[in-house]
Specification:
Strand order of the largest sheet: 3-2-4-1-5-6
Low-confidence stretches: none
Structural class: alpha/beta
Largest sheet: 6 strands, mixed
Distance between the termini: 28 Å
CATH superfamily: Phosphoglycerate mutase-like
Number of domains: 1
Order of helices and strands: EHEHEHEHEE
CATH architecture: 3-Layer(aba) Sandwich
Number of strands: 6
Number of helices: 4
Mean pLDDT: 94
Length: 153
């Protein structure tokens, strides 16, 4: 098993929704990715989100399809500008946990986990996209096993 990082779906502008919930297009993006994850047999034990409305809505859609055994919960430490190094130290490779968050945090986290440098961009996230990472026992760095993004073109 691995961990899964997800950038929330496309959100509404702040002047339309001050909490920046998902737009209709954002909901559709996340639905497509969640459906694809289910069809391909993704098993998630727990879904954790930042607590922001758009991340919670994204987590809810994924859970509707993946039915995480331990459900959904908000967590601290994955907001857009949180410290990726502090967060990375808590990650367990075999946890089968999905983390739903934001940019730039998610891209920085992947950079740090795979290269040891949070300022190296190794993957460009898309709204609603999911990235699977894993780490072999004894390895310091993680590997990207696969990703699924809304815009494959």
């Amino acid at each position: 098993m691995a961990i899964y990082l997800v950038q929330h779906g496309l959100s509404l502008a702040e002047n339309i929704d001050p909490e920046r919930g998902l737009s209709k297009e954002g909901m559709q993006q996340v639905e497509r990715i969640a459906q694809g994850a289910k069809v391909n047999g993704l098993v998630v034990k727990k879904i954790v989100h930042s607590g922001k409305k758009r991340a919670e809505q994204t987590a809810d859609i994924f859970n509707r399809y993946l039915q995480a055994a331990d459900g959904i919960q908000p967590t601290k430490g994955i907001a857009p500008k949180d410290d990726v190094i502090v967060f990375a130290q808590q990650l367990l490779p075999g946890s089968a946990t999905m983390f739903v968050g934001h940019l730039p945090f998610m891209e920085k986290l992947i950079g740090y986990l795979t290269t040891g440098d949070e300022n190296k961009t190794v993957l460009a996230f898309q709204n609603g996209g999911i990235v699977c990472l894993d780490r072999a026992e004894g390895d310091a760095l993680w590997q990207i096993k696969w990703s699924l993004m809304p815009d494959m073109g």
